[in-house]
Amino acid sequence: DVDDLELLCEALKTHIAVPKLGDKKGLVEMAAQNAREALARRLAERKSQGVLLEGVAKVFDLPEPPQRIEVYDNSHISGTHAVGAMIVAGPEGFIKKAYRKFNIKNAELAPGDDYGMMREMLKRRFTRLNAEEDETNRPDLVLIDGGQGQLTAALETLAELGLSDIPVVGIAKGPDRNAGKERFFMPNRADFQLEMRDPVLYYLQRLRDESHRFVIGSHRARRVKAISQSPLDGVPGIGPARKKKLLLQFGSAQGVAKAGITDLMRVDGINEELAKGIYNYFHSG
Fold this sequence. Notes:
15% strand; 8 strands; eight-stranded mixed beta sheet
């Protein structure tokens, strides 16, 4: 606390040559004052955060204020480039080093299957948690962006992994996505809303908005990466140099795809075997 900082400053003075006069003395005093003020602000923030977490515990019937909250969301465009994301918060605020993104890998999911995406994301996250057996990474509360359907998918996934004791809450957007009219879904309890000016509601909105920001950013990055990739990147035996020569010869990846074997062999560095491989890559099936 602040008193401890004062004691530390005094202790340092006995071991470090502190200027007694002049500009350097003023700089040292200013640095000490800035440190006191920064610590005081941090303590005030922690106290405020603690009150909010106590409110969260009360709203969601938790035995004690959560020390680790994980919030999950996913993003896609018509099912393409689907990405899931997890953000983490606790008494110190957002724990950004613990954030995770999940490129959805299940090719059998129907485009836009939000429930399937949520299942995959949670299964990967909590399978890893079980393998680590690290209780410090175990959430005291899981928030899911969505209503009853998303909540059910999350609960079933955690139950399959033997983690039914982790509290899960769904946050559904209000009508017309109005902030302040979110509905909360919990197992064995009717869905409910919080008062518009409830500080706990503001806090939960902030968590939800942070998960949106992170997942949308991750989704955008995946789209940009996909756009920058060329269909030629998947052709065996075609590295950057040969790809460049093919694009110079045919103008585009589409032009390469339409080229015959003889045409492909006219490109420097493309022999008959490689030309057949390129042709078959684009024409098989």
